[in-house]
């Protein structure tokens, strides 16, 4: 009888924990950068837990499909990560996603992961088509804040 | 055990009420379980490829082979429209000379995908101008020598570098008879989303591969040349006999540069 009570207690504790976790998630994950597109979404392109553990695998497989097969339509893409997770400062300037306080940079710093995606890849989204380059805080690459593109820069995002 | 005809009859009288309930339940479950995923997918469905055509969903095949015909009689001396268009398209104009570097050295080391070349026949004095870029060989020497498989030929004939695999040995630069490849010597501050670029990798013309993957018809250099009114560069599919490129190749006498190497280049020149 006592055993049953203890077990019951454990189960309800577990349930309460699960509910709490759900409630936190429903209230918006605290781990995305405030003000980014991702902060408005309920989950990433896959379940949040899956992405936390496996985002690197997902991107790694996608890169081969994109570079060698030319496939750029899938929901898994580094450009997609950046589009969604990039944040803006008070002036509306895009903040590079690998900065220490930003989505990629903060977590990799905490986890002591050193990676070189952004040695080559841009850290801010590609300018939207038709929008004058340099406007609306479309900075470029990992450059110093406020840098802007020379006029006439294109185009579709590499996916 | 029912016989097949009974099955057929029973499936004909479907309980519509039950089916409706299941449909609603499935809908409710989707909305309850995966609203974030659903919303995300919907939000992204609205902006495929961020303009400029639909992004490719199937792997490239060898049903096409991309190539170019360059009519050197139309290529104007002193015009560099193709070069600057290429630089702008692929972010090459964003390169900056490393601080303290020798300007003369930088002039030789800066990445260039197209070079304007002037050639003279010393016997006759005839001068030709031409843009020289990666010739997208069928049998590319750069791919032969690459120790890591970074230098590769895509199924549609585009010869390019997978920077994820490139170790920067520059063997491909030695092997290329056209001096088409460049090496990135220093960290790159600014880069485009569509043209990643970083220290320690080799790169070269990829026939505007992002345009190919978004179904756009031409390359930046061909567009720029046409906009100047020269129409010296014609881009297209070498395997399609009806393509303007194939028809022009059938009409105009053309040749491969260094045809003695038997590389079967994808870029052909006429008037040289």
Question: Brief overview, please?
Answer:
The complex is a heterodimer of chains A (159) and B (272). Chain A contains five helices and two strands, in the order αααββαα.
| Structural class assignment of chain B | alpha+beta
Number of helices of chain A: 5
The CATH architecture of the largest domain in chain B comes to 2-Layer Sandwich
Radius of gyration of chain B: 26 Å
For the residues shown, what is the average pLDDT of chain A? 73
Uncertain spans of chain B, ≥5 residues at pLDDT below 50?
1-11, 28-51
Largest sheet of chain B, described in full?
Answer: 3 strands, mixed
Order of adjacent strands in the largest pleated sheet of chain A: 1-2
Estimated helix fraction of chain B:
25-40%
Helix content of chain A: 40-55%
- Give the total of beta strands of chain B: 9
> What is the number of E strands of chain A?
2
Most strands sheet of chain A: 2 strands, antiparallel
Number of helices of chain B: 10
Radius of gyration of chain A: 20 Å
Could you state the oligomeric state of the chains shown?
heterodimer
What is the string of helix and strand elements of chain B? HHHEHHEEHEEHEEHHEHE
User: What is the name of the CATH topology of the largest domain in chain B?
Assistant: Alpha-Beta Plaits
